[in-house]
């Protein structure tokens, strides 16, 4: 996935988590594990984004020196 696709996926997951929390608060959520899975998916996407940022920073640092 490209950086833009990852950012879009992150936004989708955050939106989904918002609506899941809303459903959970109103007792309309049938499977509360979906909340946990969505949070973990968000963490996975954020991890990949951060790894790429670090790799780019290291690459730029190597190019300078």
Number of helices: 2
Number of strands: 0
Name of the CATH first level: Mainly Alpha
Strand content: under 5%
User: Into how many domains do the coordinates divide?
Assistant: 1
Mean pLDDT: 95
H and E string: HH
What structural class results from the helix and strand content? Answer: mainly alpha
Report on the biggest sheet.
none
In oligomeric terms, what are we looking at?
single chain
Distance between the termini: 30 Å
Gyration radius from CA atoms, angstroms: 16 Å
Residue share in helix: over 70%
CATH 2nd-level architecture: Orthogonal Bundle
Write down the CATH topology: Helix Hairpins
Low-confidence stretches: none
List keywords for this structure.
mainly alpha, 2 helices, Helix Hairpins, 65 residues
Give a concise summary:
The protein has 65 residues and is mainly alpha-helical. The protein has 2 helices and no strands.
Characterise this structure.
- By secondary structure, this protein is mostly helical.
- It has a single domain, classed as Helix Hairpins (Orthogonal Bundle).
- The chain is 85% helix and 0% strand.
- It contains 2 helices and no strands.
- The protein has helices at 3-25, 33-64.
- Helix 1 (3-25) packs antiparallel against helix 2.
- The longest helix has 32 residues, at 33-64.
- The protein is rod-shaped.
- It starts with a helix and ends with a helix.
- The model has no long low-confidence stretch (mean pLDDT 95).
């Amino acid at each position: 996935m490209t950086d833009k696709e990852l950012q879009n996926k992150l936004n989708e997951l955050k939106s989904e988590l918002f609506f899941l929390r809303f459903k959970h608060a109103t007792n309309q959520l049938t499977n509360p594990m979906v909340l946990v899975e969505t949070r973990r998916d968000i963490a996975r996407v954020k991890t990949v984004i951060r790894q790429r940022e670090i790799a780019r920073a290291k690459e730029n640092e190597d190019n300078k020196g």
